[in-house]
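=== Discrete structure encoding ===
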Amino acid sequence: MSERAVDVTQIADEAGRDAKITDVIDADTAQLIAEELGHTVKRVAAADVEEGLFDIVDDSTDTGRVRRWSP
């Protein structure tokens, strides 16, 4: 999602919230603004986000060869 901050604050102002670019907004407000801008929102639990950060990749197709990287 790539939107200009001024567009986000303008939508928040129209909704009755006096927002500045540096303000932190809650998840519900962010969802309303994103949908207003035409984006599809999928809400997930915080635990699901943390779980996705540390997924271990299975390298069972690795041939065992040493890969050399240039310095």
Summary: Residues 48 and 54 are 11 Å apart (CA to CA).
